[in-house]
Specification:
The complex is a heterodimer of chains A (112) and B (115). Chain A is mainly β. In chain A, 0% of the residues lie in helices and 52% in strands. In chain B, strand 4 and strand 5 form a beta hairpin. Classes of the chains: A mainly beta (112), B mainly beta (115).
């Protein structure tokens, strides 16, 4: 069962464009994390959001956690080729301990 | 920050052989580790939760006799793929719960290719 629906699955844009990746669920999460993964490597944590309505910024990346803690979004401003990678959202439900439920991922390609 | 290391990073084996992958927490003790499997261009699928000193908890659909997990110490969990077949070829990733609440650190992953 896929708890987290992530969209879009694939995204190809040109340098300088903006984009938003969505992560939705019918379940409530204690926390939600966003990761970026490069081919052949493990995921690298970008941010953890915990409070409903929370907004966090990491340079050109803006992360938002929904008020009901069921959804989240990642917005990238002025994308650069270095942003290319697989973006994964993952959530912890109140009963899952530290086990992460991952979305299917968004494969982003930014071309010069 | 805390570091989790996996070994080997790549392994190629013949069908029918067994392969062991190690996951180590290098500068902290991890009572709980997780093993994930990832197919090309897909997300991570949780296979099992590894608890130090006790049996692993496997996710539905994961064969415990096929994927043996041993968490014999606070810094090491191993995943053994027994009698590997080509369909077991995948990227296996471990993660460990860090010293602070809510922290989770991922290894670099191990790519298994079964010929």
């Amino acid at each position: 069962t896929q708890l987290l629906e992530q969209s879009p699955q694939f995204l190809s844009i040109q340098e300088g464009e903006n984009l938003t990746v969505y992560c939705n669920s019918s379940s409530v999460f204690s926390s939600l994390q966003w990761y970026r993964q490069e081919p052949g490597e493990g995921p690298v944590l970008l941010v953890t959001v915990v409070t409903g309505g929370e907004v966090k910024k990491l340079k050109r990346l803006t992360f938002q956690f929904g008020d009901a803690r069921k959804d989240s979004s990642l917005h990238i401003t002025a994308a650069q080729p270095g942003d290319t990678g697989l973006y994964l959202c993952a959530g912890v439900t109140p009963n899952s301990g530290y086990a992460l439920n991952f979305g299917k991922g968004t494969s982003l390609l930014v071309t010069p | 920050g805390a570091v989790v290391s996996q070994h080997p990073s790549r392994v190629i084996c013949k069908s029918g052989t067994s392969v062991k992958i190690e996951c180590r927490s290098l500068d902290f003790q991890a009572t709980t580790m997780f093993w994930y499997r990832q197919f090309p261009k897909q997300s991570l699928m949780l296979m099992a939760t590894s608890n130090e000193g006790s049996k692993a908890t496997y996710e539905q659909g994961v064969e415990k006799d096929k994927f043996l997990i041993n968490h014999a110490s606070l810094t090491l969990s191993t995943l053994t793929v027994t009698s590997a077949h080509p369909e077991d070829s995948s990227f296996y990733i471990c993660s460990a719960v860090g010293p602070l609440a809510g922290e989770l650190f991922f290894g670099e992953g191990s790519r298994l290719t079964v010929l």
